[in-house]
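pasting for the record
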Amino acid sequence: MAGNRPIKFRILELCNKSGGAWNYEVVRQIQKEYNLKGDYQRDSINFDLIELASCSLLRDVEVMVDEEGIYKKGFLLHKYVITDFGKARAENACLMYV
C-alpha cells in the first residue's frame, strides 16, 4: 500500500502519470492514502512538491491562480510532471516501473 512508503516517493509516482498531476490532486490523494487531515498537513504536502521541483525531480508545466478555492483561493496551482532525472532516481530507489 502507498501509505507505507515515504510521501515524497509516492508523490513522484503520482506525477509520473501521463500529462502530470496538479498539486491539489496530489495533495488530496496523499491526504487520503496517509490519513492526513487539516491545513497544516495539506500545506506540508504541497511544500514537499515544491522541494521535489526545486531538486529537479519534478517540473511544473502549467500554472494558474486558484480562483475557485480548489486548493486555496488566490494561491497558485501548479501542474507537475516527473523529469527524466526524477525517473532515474526513482528507478534507482526501486520505487516504480517507468
